[in-house]
Amino acid sequence: MADIKYYDVILKPVVTEKSMNAMAEKKYTFLVHTEATKSQIKEAVQKMFEGTKVKSVNTMNLDGKNRRRGMVVGKTAKTKKAIVTLTEDSKDIEIFEGL
């Protein structure tokens, strides 16, 4: 297992219609490092965004899709997605404000 620092865990936020609707329930969706554990994701969110308290973390591993260009067949990279639920008294995450 790789030695992953907290600032390497969260790659980018997922901005979709479904993830924007879940923000009303204090659920935020991120693409994370493929080898990150739930406890590492929780630690990364609490350190990167001041005033946040994580209630739970749900993760899902997504396999790469098959892509074809002519006769050459390949696969896209595997990804991991995390849905982070914050507690009721926690502050909101600022990067999602105004979207």
Short description:
The protein has 99 residues and is of the alpha+beta class. The protein is built from three helices and six strands. Strand 4 (66-69) and strand 5 (72-75) form a beta hairpin.
What does this structure look like?
The chain has 99 residues and is of the alpha+beta class. 21% of the residues lie in helices and 35% in strands. The protein contains 3 helices and 6 strands, in the order H-E-H-E-H-E-E-E-E. The strands form 2 sheets. A 4-stranded antiparallel beta sheet has the order 1-2-6-3. The protein has a two-stranded antiparallel ribbon with strand order 4-5. A hairpin with a 2-residue loop joins strand 4 and strand 5.
Keywords:
alpha+beta, four-stranded antiparallel sheet, two-stranded antiparallel sheet, 3 helices
Q: Hey, roughly how much beta strand do the residues contain?
A: 35-45%
Low-pLDDT stretches: none
Give the neighbour order of strands across the main sheet: 1-2-6-3
What value does the average pLDDT take? Answer: 92
